[in-house]
């Protein structure tokens, strides 16, 4: 497994739980510059894309059902609000079922509950009560510790070269050459460059900047910081949960007491991987969108700045894909497209099942125990049948 972001780590973690499967996780540098470290970590079940919604729903279910995964990831259940400029009876709604414990709100309810203004007439929002945000960085660290406790091998070097090998693929890292039945490139925004450097065909991965910032919010009434789960008795308004507003592009979440993380999508495509310049003009656009949608929310100048490249694929989701001409020994598992943190648990399980199938180990029944001190509630279970495609 090449890449120690949330994609590579969760897939390696799924695989190592199966006795008889040996996994080397080549992490690259310490992850300080990757999308997993920078991620806003919003998690919810709803998405307008049904395939993404299914993955997100399964991931959220697994996360909420496991005390260990919640603890590893620092999950905060603030709720989630997803706004769309489409009536609840619109053509796309029947294909995107509302998750459990959710409500549909119209723009009048959104104004009354959250002080949201200037919304298009037919705005509908899906409010999920059992959703929120987590730290993808903490989740990968927890999974990485459990990976090694189950006998997985960590290599902190970088992948430098790949060739067809005697039994699959030969690859070279800082530690020299090794052989594997299969190699998975899960190097996020670095994947395109890695394929080119290894003389492999490109697979349509592009990069784009995601920029957001953390703001201290005003202290007046209904500042919407989401740290209070109750209703403001003066205004009847609710604290703002994690939210995505498709009608303006604005997204955000509470970020601790009196703080909010806020951002807007950028159009900075095809940038080099890693950290990017933080653009003031994009930050000003966030303030303008906020003034239109949430005029009651006062924010101070940002104090944490995030601008990092992310890998995008046309399908818009994290998925295992064979590298053309190298099936079934070489795969990519990348293309988070701005939203893979919330799908990584289910996408990793699905990719592990696919890989085991490719390697001729479908339904591998035996499980490998962990020596990790904190794994009581994640007894290693085989990948569920439903995950096998
Ligand atoms: C600012 C920002 C905010 C986001 N907010 C959200 C959100 O709110 N909700 C959500 O669901 N998703 C969000 N995302 C998306 C999500 O975080 C990403 O899709 C996900 O983290 C991608 O993980 P990854 O493992 O594919 O890539 P990365 O995390 O980038 O990891 C790739 C890894 O590969 C390593 N690597 C590179 N080259 C090599 C090599 N040659 N050899 C070995 N290793 C190598 C790198 O060091 C890196 O650690 C956000 C992303 C960003 C950037």
Describe the 3D structure.
The structure is a single chain. The chain is α+β, with helices and mostly antiparallel strands. The chain has two domains: 1-45 and 134-205 and 315-389, FAD/NAD(P)-binding domain (3-Layer(bba) Sandwich); 80-130 and 206-312, D-Amino Acid Oxidase, Chain A, domain 2 (2-Layer Sandwich), CATH 3.30.9. It has nine helices and 18 strands. It has helices spanning 6-16, 35-38, 50-65, 67-73, 107-114, 136-149, 191-197, 280-293, 344-358; strands at residues 24-26, 42-43, 80-84, 102-106, 124-128, 132-133, 153-155, 161-165, 168-173, 176-180, 183-185, 206-216, 242-245, 251-254, 259-263, 304-312, 319-322, 330-334. The strands form five sheets. Strands 4-5-3-13-14-15-12-16 form an eight-stranded mixed beta sheet. A hairpin with a 7-residue loop joins strand 17 (319-322) and strand 18. Helix 1 crosses helix 9 and helix 3 packs across helix 9. It is globular. It binds flavin-adenine dinucleotide (FAD). Flavin-adenine dinucleotide binds next to helix 1, helix 2, strand 12 and strand 16.
């Amino acid at each position: 497994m090449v890449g120690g972001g949330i994609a590579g780590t969760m897939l390696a973690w799924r695989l190592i739980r199966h006795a008889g499967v040996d996994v080397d996780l080549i992490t690259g540098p310490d992850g300080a510059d990757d999308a997993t470290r920078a991620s806003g970590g919003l998690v919810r079940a709803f998405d307008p894309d049904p395939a993404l919604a299914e993955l997100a729903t399964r991931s959220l279910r697994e996360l909420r059902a496991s005390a260990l995964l919640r603890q590893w990831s620092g999950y905060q259940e603030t709720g989630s609000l997803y706004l769309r400029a489409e009536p609840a009876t619109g053509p796309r709604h029947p294909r995107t079922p509302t998750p459990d414990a959710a409500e549909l709100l119209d723009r009048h309810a959104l104004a009354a509950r959250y002080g949201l203004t200037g919304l298009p007439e037919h705005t509908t929002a899906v409010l999920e009560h059992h959703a929120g945000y987590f730290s993808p960085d903490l989740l990968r660290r927890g999974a990485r510790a459990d990976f090694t406790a189950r006998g997985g091998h960590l290599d902190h070097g970088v992948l430098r070269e790949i060739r067809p090998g005697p039994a699959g693929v030969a690859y070279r890292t800082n530690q020299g050459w090794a052989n594997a039945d299969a190699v998975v490139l899960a190097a996020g925004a670095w994947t395109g460059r890695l394929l080119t450097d290894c003389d492999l065909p490109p697979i349509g991965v592009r990069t784009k900047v995601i920029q957001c910032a953390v703001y201290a919010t005003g202290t007046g009434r209904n500042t919407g910081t989401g740290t209070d789960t109750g209703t403001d008795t003066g205004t009847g308004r609710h604290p703002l949960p994690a939210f995505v507003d498709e009608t303006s592009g604005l997204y955000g979440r509470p970020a601790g007491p009196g703080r909010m993380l806020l951002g807007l999508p950028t159009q900075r495509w095809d940038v080099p991987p890693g950290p990017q310049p933080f653009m003031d003009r994009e930050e000003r656009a966030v303030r303008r969108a906020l003034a239109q949608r949430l005029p009651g929310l006062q924010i101070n100048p940002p104090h944490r700045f995030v601008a990092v490249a992310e890998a995008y694929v046309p399908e818009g989701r994290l998925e295992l894909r064979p590298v053309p001409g190298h099936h079934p020994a070489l795969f990519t598992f990348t293309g988070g497209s701005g939203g893979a943190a919330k799908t990584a648990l289910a996408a990793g399980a699905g990719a592990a099942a696919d890989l085991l199938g490719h390697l001729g180990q479908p339904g591998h029944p035996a499980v490998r125990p962990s020596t990790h001190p904190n794994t009581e509630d994640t007894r290693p279970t085989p990948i569920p049948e439903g995950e096998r495609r």
